[in-house]
């Protein structure tokens, strides 16, 4: 399923997207920091801190900081969206998250940016108006007017009080203070002079204030109304003391002509207090000037607040976008995760069906229905496959007991079945054979499928060996079945038996006349050699040639006899070290130019064998190695000839004899070098290695040939010691080997 999805995705036309790399994110962050630093220097670079910055400039700086800030928030939201998508069961790049973040960011950023700019301009122009000259002049004039009104009213009350004191002094000279006439005059003075209250009092020796006459509609406490500090000022010679308290203007003066009489008069302003109003006007002016001083700070604080608020709104929009995307993507992710489980083979995967009947709910129901059907069909297929496998196992069990190799192929010539014998014959494993074309495994057998004959003999190369297989092909509608047997050894035995019979006949027919021929040639030499005049040298040469050729024929007949009538081996426990030394010593003496070396362990193994036949086999192998070194030629810059004979014991079950040389190496037809009369030398009989192979096989062993590193041949002879022990037990004539003196070799090993 994943592969199909990937193919569809690759086949669909891909839209070009803006690639947002970490470098872009770093660039946006750098731009935001750089613009913030530039804005700081622009703001702090103004010389007059009390002057407002240009509203368009501040709005421009606000926009310049908002744009990269919003972009940075969007990129952070995008990264968070991708992280959420990657951590979900569906994986992926979170494109839906990213799109929703982008949409919500645009919807929130554009109006927020516009509102921020408009609010900034309105606020700045409003502040610019209030800190301009016109409002300043109005506030300063109002404050001056309030102060002037206060001074005028204060002076009026003070003057009227002093004048009233003079009139009261005159009245006191005519009337006593408790008389009705004086009270009328005193009240009339208060009314005429537009005063609200008046008190004539005296101060006793103990400091108590005693009222003599008063107009006090408010019934205030005299002790609280009379200012003691004002009395002291009057005692010090001041004419009058006027001040304001609350909404009243009051004045205190001494009545002329008396030492201890004072006049207190007051007037209500009716405006809530002249002094507080004047003070408020002054405070307003002070606050206004402080506002002017802080106008730039307010301007910057307001715009910074707008910036933070705008970024907060965009951040909230991004967060809301992520939450909405999670709610939308969650059911899709559940479907994707379940689909991947199904693709992985888990057909029990289900998605929770939602109560809502929207498209997602319908899709979830359809998906669960599909998986139910797939699970049922898969269970049926598994059951059928189990039955097929049981039948296959039965067939394989039957075929495993068949010695012949069996290969079943389909109509497409792909191997469906191979029994153990076929795998062993072709040296293949089941993993590298089943499901593969036959031409990959055995091209020689694949070529037979095109031939009209249904039975044939094929030469198959297995590794470095050539095998002869008798193949039978059976065809049906489903494919073909190849049955084959390895007849390599059978053919070799037949050829060996045939050559043995031929060798026996040749030895019998040739050996009889050889002795008379040799005797006749020697007699001719003795009797007529001196009688021939002028040609005695030629006569002697001819008779000598006859004698030598008869000797060569006799040696060849002896080899034929040895190959044809190999005696039954007499198994005894022998020392391989002694046999190896004796075999090498003969060649060391005959070939001093070649370096011979014997490599054995500290405790050389013994072997149950026929000493004579084992020595013959080793002698033939070493003889072939010597001839291979001599065949390299002369006059060339060649290394010294070397022959190494190694004896190894492995796993207490196998003994190895390894002979390596640096001669000319193996011939091309290396698989036939152990066949009788197979030789690459002009004077060879081709029986040496055949005799060696026969001796080795009669000693429960195997012989192999490989190339030597750097040139030459490695001959490996392996003996099964357990099988030889069994042969020794069966040999009733087996006797312990007689002790033999160790033979010394030129290699110096003993």
How does this model look, in words?
This protein has 20 helices and 17 strands. The chain has 750 residues and is of the alpha+beta class. The protein folds into 5 domains: 17-132 and 292-341, no CATH class; 150-280, 2-Layer Sandwich (Beta-Lactamase); 401-482, Beta-Lactamase (2-Layer Sandwich), CATH 3.30.450.20; 492-563; 569-730, Heat Shock Protein 90, CATH 3.30.565. Helix 15 (488-528) runs antiparallel to helix 16. The protein is rod-shaped, with a radius of gyration of 66 Å. It starts with a helix and ends in a 20-residue tail after the last helix.
Any descriptors?
750 residues, Beta-Lactamase, 5 domains, rod-shaped, disordered C terminus, membrane, transmembrane helix, His_kinase_dom
Give a nutshell description of this structure.
The chain is an alpha+beta fold. It is 56% helix and 16% strand.
Secondary-structure blueprint of this entry?
Blueprint: H1 2-11, H2 22-44, H3 55-87, H4 95-130, H5 133-174, H6 180-192, E1 197-203, E2 209-215, H7 222-225, H8 228-235, E3 240-245, E4 248-254, E5 261-268, H9 274-293, H10 295-343, H11 359-400, E6 405-410, E7 415-418, H12 420-426, H13 438-441, H14 443-448, E8 455-462, E9 465-475, E10 479-486, H15 488-528, H16 536-564, E11 572-575, H17 576-590, E12 595-599, E13 606-609, H18 611-630, E14 642-650, E15 654-661, H19 688-698, E16 701-707, E17 713-720, H20 721-730
Parallel strand pairs: 12-14
Antiparallel strand pairs: 1-2, 1-5, 3-4, 4-5, 6-7, 6-10, 8-9, 9-10, 11-13, 14-15, 15-17, 16-17
């Amino acid at each position: 399923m994943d592969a199909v999805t990937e193919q569809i995705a690759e086949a669909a036309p891909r839209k070009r997207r803006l690639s947002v790399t970490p470098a872009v994110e770093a660039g946006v962050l750098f731009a935001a920091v750089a613009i913030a630093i530039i804005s700081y220097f622009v703001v702090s670079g103004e010389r007059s801190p009390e002057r407002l910055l240009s509203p368009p400039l501040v709005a421009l700086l606000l926009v310049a900081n908002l744009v990269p800030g919003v972009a940075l928030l969007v990129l952070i939201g995008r990264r968070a969206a991708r992280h959420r998508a990657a951590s979900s069961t569906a994986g992926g790049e979170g494109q839906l998250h990213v799109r929703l973040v982008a949409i919500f960011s645009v919807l929130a950023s554009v109006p927020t940016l516009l509102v921020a700019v408009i609010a900034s301009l309105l606020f700045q122009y409003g502040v610019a108006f209030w800190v301009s000259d016109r409002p300043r002049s109005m506030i300063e004039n109002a404050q001056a007017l309030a102060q002037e009104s206060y001074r005028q009213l204060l002076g009026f009350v003070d003057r009227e009080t002093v004048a009233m004191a003079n009139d009261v002094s005159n009245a006191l000279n005519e009337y006593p203070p408790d008389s009705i006439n004086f009270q009328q005059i005193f009240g009339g003075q208060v009314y005429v002079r537009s005063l609200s209250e008046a008190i004539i009092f005296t101060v006793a020796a103990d400091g108590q204030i005693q009222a003599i006459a008063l107009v006090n509609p408010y019934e205030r406490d005299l002790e609280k109304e009379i200012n003691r500090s004002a009395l002291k000022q009057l005692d010090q010679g001041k004419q009058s003391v006027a001040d304001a308290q609350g909404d009243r203007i009051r004045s205190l003066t001494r009545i002329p002509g008396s030492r201890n009489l004072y006049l207190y008069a007051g007037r209500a302003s009716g405006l809530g207090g002249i002094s507080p109003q004047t003070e408020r006007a002054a405070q307003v002016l002070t606050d206004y000037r402080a506002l002017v001083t802080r106008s730039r700070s307010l301007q910057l604080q307001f715009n910074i607040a707008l910036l933070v608020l705008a970024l907060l709104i965009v951040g909230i929009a991004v967060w809301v976008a992520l939450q909405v995307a999670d709610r939308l993507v969650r059911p899709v992710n559940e479907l994707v995760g379940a689909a991947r489980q199904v693709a992985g083979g888990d057909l029990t995967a289900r998605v929770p069906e939602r109560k809502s009947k929207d498209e997602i709910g319908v899709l979830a129901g359809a998906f669960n229905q599909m998986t139910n059907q797939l699970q049922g069909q898969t269970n049926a297929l598994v059951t059928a496959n189990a039955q097929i496998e049981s039948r296959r196992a039965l067939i394989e069990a039957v075929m495993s007991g068949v010695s012949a190799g069996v290969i079943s192929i389909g109509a497409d010539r792909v191997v469906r079945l191979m029994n153990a014998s076929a795998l062993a014959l072709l040296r293949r494993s089941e993993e590298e054979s089943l499901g593969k074309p036959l031409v990959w495994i055995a091209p020689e057998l694949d070529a037979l499928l095109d031939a009209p004959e249904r039975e044939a003999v094929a030469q198959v190369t297995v590794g470095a060996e050539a095998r002869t297989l008798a193949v039978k092909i059976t065809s049906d509608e489903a494919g073909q079945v190849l049955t084959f047997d390895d007849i390599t050894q059978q053919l070799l035995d037949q050829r060996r038996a045939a050559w043995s019979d031929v060798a026996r006949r040749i030895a019998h027919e040739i050996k009889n006349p050889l002795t008379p021929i040799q005797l006749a040639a020697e007699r001719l030499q003795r009797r007529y050699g001196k009688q021939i005049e002028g040609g005695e040298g030629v006569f002697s040469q001819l008779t000598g040639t006859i004698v030598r050729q008869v000797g060569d024929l006799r040696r060849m007949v002896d080899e034929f006899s040895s190959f044809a009538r190999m005696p039954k081996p007499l198994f005894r426990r022998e020392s391989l070290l002694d046999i190896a030394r004796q075999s090498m010593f003969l060649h060391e003496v005959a070939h001093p130019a070649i370096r011979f070396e014997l490599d054995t362990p500290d405790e050389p193994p013994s072997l149950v064998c026929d000493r004579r036949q084992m020595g013959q086999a080793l002698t033939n192998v070493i003889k072939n190695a010597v001839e291979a070194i001599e065949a390299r030629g002369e006059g060339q810059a060649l290394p010294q000839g070397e022959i190494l004979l190694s004896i190894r014991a492995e796993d207490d079950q196998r003994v190895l004899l390894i002979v390596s040389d640096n001669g000319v190496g193996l011939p091309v037809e290396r698989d036939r070098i152990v066949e009788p009369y197979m030789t690459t030398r002009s004077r060879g009989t081709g029986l040496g290695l055949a005799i060696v192979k026969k001796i080795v096989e009669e000693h429960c062993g195997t012989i192999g040939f490989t190339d030597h590193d750097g040139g030459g041949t490695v001959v490996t002879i392996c003996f099964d010691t357990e099988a030889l022990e069994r042969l020794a037990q069966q040999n009733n004539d087996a006797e312990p080997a007689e002790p033999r003196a160790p033979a010394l070799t030129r290699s110096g090993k003993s």
